[in-house]
Write a structure and sequence with these properties.
With about 200 residues, this protein is α+β, with helices and mostly antiparallel strands. It has two helices and 15 strands.
């Protein structure tokens, strides 16, 4: 399965290859690029590893970049799936887009890059997912709209060509992943609810 809106990129590469002729050096380069786009825009089906409805799943594929207080950041490398997913069940109550810079997504100042923040209201408090663009092509795509009801693991958007996703949780949750760990969107459990100071 391919990500929503990727057809134009892939068809464009295929058309350019056909226009140049299949056996010219330039066509070979375009063919390789088209194959890369097919890989980049892949959007596999995912099932959560958890059956507990209160668990929070990863909103993105990649590596955990940092964990600070109630916020976790995930760095998405170029080879990762770039479709983002809702970490929880809830209602979209706010979407805010901000223009910004072009710093690499792993840079500590990348908070100033182009970003899109989606606030999801749950029965346990608000969860904020922030899509942050990288340095190459700044293009954040949001699939959801305000007042939409989301299911955990539902596709909410994508970021093209290198990026970062942050998730901020309400109090009462504890992260169960560590810095440097690989995670998968909609599948890996990243946080669990605390009851009387214990992870459940």
């Amino acid at each position: 399965m391919l990500a929503k809106g990727s057809e134009y990129w892939i068809l464009g590469g295929g058309a350019l290859t056909a226009f140049m002729g299949f056996f010219t050096p330039y066509a070979f380069v375009v063919m390789v690029l088209t194959l890369f786009l097919l890989l980049f825009f892949r959007d596999p089906e995912r099932l959560s590893e958890s059956h507990d409805a209160t668990d929070v799943v990863s909103p993105a594929d990649g590596r955990v970049l940092k964990i600070q207080d109630n916020q976790l950041s995930i760095f998405m490398n170029i080879h990762n799936v770039h479709v983002n997913r809702s970490p929880v069940d809830g209602e979209v109550i706010d979407i805010r887009y901000h223009k910004g810079g072009r710093l690499p997504a792993f840079h500590k100042e990348s908070d100033k890059n182009e970003r899109n923040s989606i606030t999801i209201r749950t029965r346990l408090g608000n969860v904020v997912v922030t899509q942050i663009s990288g340095a190459v092509i700044r293009r954040i795509v949001c699939y959801v709209k305000q007042n939409e009801i989301l299911g955990r693991g539902q596709r909410i958007g994508m970021i093209r060509f290198g990026s970062r996703v942050d998730v901020a949780l309400p109090s009462g949750y504890s992260f169960v992943v560590s810095r440097g760990q690989k995670v998968k969107a909609g599948k890996t459990t990243i946080a669990k609810l605390l009851i009387q100071g214990q992870v459940i």
